[in-house]
Amino acid sequence: MGYKIDLHTHTIAAGHAYSTLDENMGVAEKKGMEIVAYTEHGPKMMGGPHQYFFNNLKVLPDYIYGVRVLKGIECNIMNSNGSVDCEDKVLRNLDIIGAGLHRVDGGFHPGSREENTFAVINTMKTKKVDFIAHIGNPVYDIDFVEVVKAAVKYNVAIEVNNSSFQTSRPGSTANCECVVKLCKEHGAFVCLGSDSHYCEDVGALELSTKLVKKYGISEDKILNTSKEILFQFLNSNGNLIRKGKVK
Ligand SMILES: [Zn+2]
Ligand SMILES: [Zn+2]
Q1: Does residue 239 or residue 84 have the better pLDDT?
Q2: Does the residue 245 lie in any domain?
Q3: Distance in Å, CA 11 to ligand 2 centroid
Q4: Within a domain: residue 191?
Q5: Does 242 map to a domain?
Q6: Nearest ligand, CA of residue 10?
Q7: Of the candidates 72, 19, 68, which has an alpha carbon nearest to the alpha carbon of residue 41?
Q8: Using 50, 70 and 90 to split pLDDT, how confident is the model at 167?
Q9: Ligand 1 centroid – CA 141 distance (Å)
Q10: What's this model's pTM, rounded to 2 decimal places?
Protein backbone atom coordinates (compact mmCIF):
# COMPACT_ATOMS: atom_id res chain seq x y z
CA MET A 1 0.00 0.00 0.00
CA GLY A 2 1.28 3.42 -0.92
CA TYR A 3 1.64 6.51 1.22
CA LYS A 4 -1.57 8.39 2.00
CA ILE A 5 0.09 11.76 2.41
CA ASP A 6 1.01 13.94 -0.56
CA LEU A 7 3.10 16.97 0.37
CA HIS A 8 3.23 18.92 -2.89
CA THR A 9 0.26 19.88 -5.13
CA HIS A 10 -0.90 22.75 -7.35
CA THR A 11 -4.16 24.12 -8.73
CA ILE A 12 -5.27 26.54 -11.46
CA ALA A 13 -4.04 29.33 -9.18
CA ALA A 14 -0.51 28.48 -10.34
CA GLY A 15 -1.27 29.78 -13.80
CA HIS A 16 0.16 26.61 -15.34
CA ALA A 17 -1.89 23.88 -13.61
CA TYR A 18 -5.30 22.68 -14.65
CA SER A 19 -7.52 21.63 -11.75
CA THR A 20 -9.28 23.36 -8.91
CA LEU A 21 -8.63 22.59 -5.26
CA ASP A 22 -12.06 20.98 -5.13
CA GLU A 23 -11.15 18.66 -8.01
CA ASN A 24 -7.82 17.82 -6.40
CA MET A 25 -9.45 16.94 -3.11
CA GLY A 26 -12.13 14.90 -4.85
CA VAL A 27 -9.42 12.74 -6.38
CA ALA A 28 -7.61 12.60 -3.04
CA GLU A 29 -10.75 11.24 -1.40
CA LYS A 30 -11.21 8.71 -4.20
CA LYS A 31 -7.65 7.48 -3.72
CA GLY A 32 -8.07 7.22 0.05
CA MET A 33 -5.55 9.94 0.86
CA GLU A 34 -5.36 11.23 4.42
CA ILE A 35 -3.46 14.48 3.99
CA VAL A 36 -2.74 16.69 0.99
CA ALA A 37 -0.47 19.71 1.24
CA TYR A 38 -1.64 22.51 -1.01
CA THR A 39 1.66 24.17 -1.89
CA GLU A 40 0.99 26.77 -4.52
CA HIS A 41 3.91 28.51 -6.23
CA GLY A 42 5.13 31.68 -4.57
CA PRO A 43 4.11 35.12 -5.91
CA LYS A 44 7.10 35.51 -8.23
CA MET A 45 6.01 32.57 -10.38
CA MET A 46 4.82 33.97 -13.69
CA GLY A 47 1.02 33.83 -13.75
CA GLY A 48 0.96 32.70 -10.12
CA PRO A 49 -1.00 34.03 -7.18
CA HIS A 50 -0.43 37.23 -5.26
CA GLN A 51 0.81 37.13 -1.71
CA TYR A 52 -2.75 37.85 -0.50
CA PHE A 53 -3.65 34.42 -1.80
CA PHE A 54 -1.46 32.78 0.82
CA ASN A 55 -2.61 35.13 3.52
CA ASN A 56 -6.19 34.15 2.80
CA LEU A 57 -5.69 30.37 2.84
CA LYS A 58 -7.14 30.58 6.33
CA VAL A 59 -10.64 30.69 4.82
CA LEU A 60 -10.24 27.09 3.65
CA PRO A 61 -11.53 24.37 5.93
CA ASP A 62 -9.04 21.94 7.43
CA TYR A 63 -10.80 19.03 5.75
CA ILE A 64 -12.26 18.83 2.26
CA TYR A 65 -14.13 15.61 1.43
CA GLY A 66 -12.73 14.24 4.67
CA VAL A 67 -9.11 14.75 3.59
CA ARG A 68 -6.91 17.05 5.62
CA VAL A 69 -5.60 20.02 3.64
CA LEU A 70 -2.34 21.52 4.81
CA LYS A 71 -2.09 25.14 3.77
CA GLY A 72 1.32 25.70 2.35
CA ILE A 73 3.49 27.28 -0.27
CA GLU A 74 6.31 26.37 -2.64
CA CYS A 75 8.41 29.50 -2.39
CA ASN A 76 10.90 30.60 -4.99
CA ILE A 77 14.46 30.98 -3.79
CA MET A 78 15.26 34.49 -4.95
CA ASN A 79 18.97 34.96 -4.36
CA SER A 80 22.11 33.46 -2.92
CA ASN A 81 21.21 34.76 0.54
CA GLY A 82 18.38 32.27 0.56
CA SER A 83 15.62 34.88 0.54
CA VAL A 84 12.23 33.62 -0.58
CA ASP A 85 9.37 35.41 -2.32
CA CYS A 86 6.92 35.57 0.55
CA GLU A 87 6.95 37.80 3.58
CA ASP A 88 7.48 36.36 7.03
CA LYS A 89 4.13 37.65 8.25
CA VAL A 90 2.42 35.41 5.67
CA LEU A 91 4.71 32.41 6.05
CA ARG A 92 4.18 32.31 9.79
CA ASN A 93 0.56 31.24 9.39
CA LEU A 94 1.22 28.40 6.95
CA ASP A 95 1.30 24.71 7.86
CA ILE A 96 4.06 23.68 5.50
CA ILE A 97 6.66 25.73 3.66
CA GLY A 98 8.70 24.43 0.79
CA ALA A 99 11.23 26.29 -1.30
CA GLY A 100 12.78 25.52 -4.63
CA LEU A 101 14.85 26.88 -7.45
CA HIS A 102 12.73 27.94 -10.43
CA ARG A 103 13.46 30.27 -13.31
CA VAL A 104 11.25 33.18 -12.31
CA ASP A 105 11.50 36.86 -13.10
CA GLY A 106 13.99 38.46 -10.76
CA GLY A 107 14.72 35.10 -9.16
CA PHE A 108 17.85 33.08 -8.76
CA HIS A 109 19.03 31.81 -12.10
CA PRO A 110 21.39 28.86 -12.54
CA GLY A 111 24.90 29.80 -11.55
CA SER A 112 28.05 27.88 -10.70
CA ARG A 113 27.84 24.77 -8.53
CA GLU A 114 29.09 26.83 -5.60
CA GLU A 115 26.54 29.59 -6.12
CA ASN A 116 23.61 27.19 -6.47
CA THR A 117 24.65 25.17 -3.44
CA PHE A 118 25.17 28.33 -1.41
CA ALA A 119 21.65 29.56 -2.29
CA VAL A 120 19.99 26.32 -1.19
CA ILE A 121 21.98 26.04 2.05
CA ASN A 122 21.32 29.68 2.90
CA THR A 123 17.61 29.07 2.40
CA MET A 124 17.81 26.26 4.95
CA LYS A 125 19.74 28.50 7.33
CA THR A 126 16.92 31.04 7.41
CA LYS A 127 14.92 28.47 9.42
CA LYS A 128 11.77 29.39 7.53
CA VAL A 129 11.33 26.35 5.32
CA ASP A 130 10.30 22.79 6.05
CA PHE A 131 11.52 21.21 2.81
CA ILE A 132 13.56 21.90 -0.29
CA ALA A 133 11.75 20.92 -3.47
CA HIS A 134 13.25 18.94 -6.36
CA ILE A 135 16.95 19.58 -5.76
CA GLY A 136 17.73 16.90 -8.36
CA ASN A 137 16.85 19.32 -11.16
CA PRO A 138 19.88 19.10 -13.49
CA VAL A 139 19.41 22.71 -14.61
CA TYR A 140 20.99 23.70 -11.29
CA ASP A 141 24.35 22.07 -10.65
CA ILE A 142 24.42 21.39 -6.91
CA ASP A 143 26.83 19.82 -4.45
CA PHE A 144 24.44 17.23 -3.04
CA VAL A 145 26.77 16.14 -0.26
CA GLU A 146 26.87 19.66 1.18
CA VAL A 147 23.14 20.17 0.75
CA VAL A 148 22.21 16.90 2.45
CA LYS A 149 24.63 17.60 5.31
CA ALA A 150 23.01 21.03 5.72
CA ALA A 151 19.55 19.46 5.64
CA VAL A 152 20.52 17.32 8.63
CA LYS A 153 22.16 20.25 10.42
CA TYR A 154 19.20 22.61 9.97
CA ASN A 155 16.57 19.87 10.12
CA VAL A 156 15.02 20.57 6.75
CA ALA A 157 13.51 17.75 4.69
CA ILE A 158 14.67 16.90 1.19
CA GLU A 159 11.87 16.32 -1.27
CA VAL A 160 11.74 13.35 -3.61
CA ASN A 161 9.48 14.78 -6.30
CA ASN A 162 7.48 12.19 -8.20
CA SER A 163 7.02 14.34 -11.30
CA SER A 164 10.80 14.67 -11.68
CA PHE A 165 10.76 11.09 -12.96
CA GLN A 166 7.99 11.74 -15.46
CA THR A 167 6.92 15.06 -16.92
CA SER A 168 9.13 17.63 -15.24
CA ARG A 169 12.80 18.50 -15.06
CA PRO A 170 14.15 15.87 -17.48
CA GLY A 171 17.40 14.28 -16.49
CA SER A 172 16.61 14.37 -12.77
CA THR A 173 16.63 10.63 -12.15
CA ALA A 174 20.37 10.08 -11.68
CA ASN A 175 20.59 13.11 -9.40
CA CYS A 176 17.61 11.95 -7.36
CA GLU A 177 19.25 8.54 -6.90
CA CYS A 178 22.36 10.27 -5.62
CA VAL A 179 20.38 12.55 -3.29
CA VAL A 180 18.31 9.75 -1.78
CA LYS A 181 21.42 7.63 -1.24
CA LEU A 182 23.03 10.55 0.60
CA CYS A 183 19.90 11.12 2.67
CA LYS A 184 20.14 7.51 3.82
CA GLU A 185 23.85 7.81 4.63
CA HIS A 186 23.49 11.06 6.56
CA GLY A 187 20.09 10.43 8.14
CA ALA A 188 18.20 13.31 6.52
CA PHE A 189 14.43 13.54 6.52
CA VAL A 190 12.79 13.10 3.14
CA CYS A 191 9.31 13.98 1.94
CA LEU A 192 7.46 12.77 -1.11
CA GLY A 193 5.32 14.96 -3.30
CA SER A 194 3.38 14.35 -6.49
CA ASP A 195 3.85 17.99 -7.59
CA SER A 196 0.47 17.46 -9.21
CA HIS A 197 -0.55 20.02 -11.82
CA TYR A 198 -3.66 18.01 -12.78
CA CYS A 199 -6.07 16.42 -10.33
CA GLU A 200 -5.54 12.81 -11.39
CA ASP A 201 -1.91 13.09 -10.27
CA VAL A 202 -2.75 13.97 -6.67
CA GLY A 203 -1.39 11.14 -4.54
CA ALA A 204 0.83 9.81 -7.35
CA LEU A 205 3.96 8.91 -5.41
CA GLU A 206 4.89 5.54 -6.86
CA LEU A 207 8.22 6.48 -8.43
CA SER A 208 9.39 8.46 -5.42
CA THR A 209 8.35 5.61 -3.18
CA LYS A 210 10.30 3.12 -5.28
CA LEU A 211 13.44 5.22 -4.88
CA VAL A 212 13.23 5.68 -1.11
CA LYS A 213 12.62 1.94 -0.74
CA LYS A 214 15.55 1.12 -3.03
CA TYR A 215 17.94 3.03 -0.79
CA GLY A 216 16.35 1.83 2.44
CA ILE A 217 15.28 5.16 3.91
CA SER A 218 13.68 4.25 7.23
CA GLU A 219 10.00 4.97 7.66
CA ASP A 220 10.62 7.34 10.56
CA LYS A 221 12.66 9.56 8.25
CA ILE A 222 9.90 9.79 5.65
CA LEU A 223 7.41 12.53 6.47
CA ASN A 224 4.68 10.78 4.46
CA THR A 225 4.73 7.72 6.72
CA SER A 226 2.14 9.03 9.17
CA LYS A 227 0.39 12.12 10.42
CA GLU A 228 2.30 11.73 13.70
CA ILE A 229 5.72 11.74 12.05
CA LEU A 230 4.77 14.62 9.77
CA PHE A 231 3.27 16.84 12.44
CA GLN A 232 6.04 16.10 14.88
CA PHE A 233 8.53 17.20 12.26
CA LEU A 234 6.58 20.34 11.35
CA ASN A 235 6.27 21.33 15.00
CA SER A 236 9.81 20.62 16.07
CA ASN A 237 11.98 21.08 13.02
CA GLY A 238 13.28 24.39 14.21
CA ASN A 239 11.15 26.41 11.81
CA LEU A 240 11.37 29.80 13.47
CA ILE A 241 8.71 31.45 11.38
CA ARG A 242 5.66 29.34 12.17
CA LYS A 243 3.44 30.96 14.74
CA GLY A 244 1.36 28.12 16.11
CA LYS A 245 1.51 24.37 16.09
CA VAL A 246 0.23 22.37 13.14
CA LYS A 247 -2.62 20.27 14.49
ZN1 LIG B 1 8.74 23.46 -8.21
ZN1 LIG C 1 5.51 22.41 -7.54
Answers
A1: 84
A2: no
A3: 10
A4: yes
A5: no
A6: 2
A7: 72
A8: confident
A9: 16
A10: 0.96
